[in-house]
Amino acid sequence: MKKLPNMISIARALLSIALIFPPMFSWGFYTIYIICGLSDLLDGVLARKLNCVSVKGAMIDSAADIIFFCVLVVRLVLALNYPLWVLISIAAIALIRTFTIIMGAIKFKKLTVLHTVLNKIAGSLVFLSPLLYLVTAKNIEVTAVILIAIVLISSVEEFAIVMLQKTFDPDVKFLFPRK
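Structure (tokenized):
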């Protein structure tokens, strides 16, 4: 039972790759997509409930999140006709995130993905983006502005935290924690 949360995270990574195959916005896509989202909620809850939270588990979870995010962004970019400013914004965010991971790896000698409140909000919005796209009457600009603003702010916050931390704490919640 102690390995179940990690097995769920690994399954999410594999299912995320499977998201490449069904047509975008199809029932098959949404079925796999929702299972990925539910598994992301379930693995952490189970890890805490089973008292098997670990650094390795957090890294597996983060890796599965990154795979899901990358597949989703690629699928959305290829499926929708985004304006150039959106593509440039996505590339800038990807560069900030990549630079943060590289700087964290150099500074702390490990994968440095943080579980901040803004990262959770950004991840939730990215997860909900195909649904948000439908809710905003398929208005790409409205969906993009909402996502880009939150994800950009969370990316900059994560970079600042990694650069300011003396010792790595993946569970830091905010750039300026309340005392």
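The CA atoms of residues 69 and 126 lie 7 Å apart. Helices lie at 4-18, 27-49, 55-79, 84-108, 117-135, 140-164.
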